[in-house]
Amino acid sequence: MTTQGLGWTGSGRKAVIGGVAREFYQRVKEYYDEEEAWTQESAASFERYDPAADAMWVFTPHVAENILEAMLAEERVEVHRDQWLNREDGVEMAGTQMVAR
After folding, report:
1. Angle between the 61-74 and 19-32 helix axes, to the nearest 10 degrees?
2. Which of 5, 30, 90, 92 sits 20 to 30 Å CA-CA off 53?
3. What is the pTM of this model?
4. Is 43 exposed, middle or buried (0-12, 13-18, 19+ CB in 10 A)?
């Protein structure tokens, strides 16, 4: 959802968001800390940008996609796109890895 248009996170108490999710929002903030990121408006004119904050909760889908792709690549996570779970046979485990049947 984040990479397909849900670029506004209604998180309520942001202090409770941690782990990988917090890292994602911190990377969003790092992206928008760069002046080149602001092509439609300036950071100063965007009320949701706080230069003193450690994370940013509003972003465009392409920024989210780039950040998530980078995080997956850094951890060498193999992503299988356009694959469907076989609901009749399920999956088979080979050690700790799932393999298609």
Report:
1. 120
2. 5
3. 0.78
4. middle
Mean pLDDT of 23-29: 96
- Which of 54, 58, 64 lies closest to 11 in space, CA to CA? 58
Specify the residue for token string 């920024």. Answer: 63
Residue pair 42/48 in contact (Cβ under 8 Å)? The answer is: no
Structure tokens at 28: 């969003």
Out of 3-12, 44-53, 67-76, 92-101, least confident range: 3-12
Residues 6+ apart with CB under 8 A from 66: 31
Q: Are 25 and 9 in contact, with CB atoms under 8 Å apart? A: yes
Encode the chain in three state secondary structure.
CHHHCCCECCCCCHHHCCHHHHHHHHHHHHHHCCHHHCCCCCHHHCCCCCCCCCCCCECCHHHHHHHHHHHHHHCCCCCCCCCCCCCCCCCEEECCEEECC
